[in-house]
Amino acid sequence: MAENSILSARQVSKRFGGLQAVDRVSFEVEPRGVTSIIGPNGAGKSTLFNLISGTFLPDSGEVVFDGKDVTHQAPEQKLASGMARSFQITNLFFDLSVIDNLRIASQRLESSQQLLKPFSKSRLALQRTDELISEFELERAADQLAGALSHGDQRRLEIAVTLATRPRLLMLDEPSQGMSQADTQETAELIRRLSQNMAILLIEHDVDLVMDLSQHVVVMAQGQKLAEGTPQAVRANPEVQTAYFGEATA
Ligand SMILES: Nc1ncnc2c1ncn2[C@@H]1O[C@H](COP(=O)(O)OP(=O)(O)OP(=O)(O)O)[C@@H](O)[C@H]1O
Ligand SMILES: [Mg+2]
Question: Closest residue (by CA) to atom 3 of ligand 1?
């Protein structure tokens, strides 16, 4: 239960006009490993992410991170608390180099006074940028424009950018979207490696990837949590098969 969780969503709900996009969804995320959220298009997965990350305020329910109620925190505060997310649509600066994308993201580690000074004086940001360049083996790509990278490299750079603030929870919305098989495999290895030291919450349509990477799977359908459990348990669940896997194999 809560003692072992880094994140708890408790009865979280969000309505858009007449549509109950997220309906009393609860689940827990452990401090290490991969928890995935799956479900058909429009099931409410990204909305649930938005409620957890602070993009939207839930109509009701609570979000608890590291034992603290963060339900009403703004995204910036949540980032400072150690929660970070990537978007289904990219948040890179395509006209800037790889290293500048990482520097800008790493600037958040500096105090606000430091932000007025030149990059060259931002010791923490420069150090973090170096770490990310080396961890993601971006040495040779450092001066390329982000917009010139392959799609797979862009998505991985996006993960590096999201990690700049050293979050303890990384939320990834469809990181393999539009990727080749080889890129998907490379990204899977990256996620697996990162999950040894942090919690990863993943929204993903690639069911094989989800089954391969996750320790825990939450299945959503029409705003509600339909089931949760180990990948094997979820896959064997008849309701899930009808709502989700049935659709994929029909
Ligand atoms: N800002 C918004 N305003 C109004 N309706 C919204 C908004 N965001 C999402 N919705 C609606 O809420 C429902 C859930 O959308 P959401 O994007 O959370 O689904 P999803 O599970 O992420 O789908 P996908 O797999 O296609 O990404 C959909 O019917 C969507 O049209
Ligand atoms: Mg979505």
Answer: 16
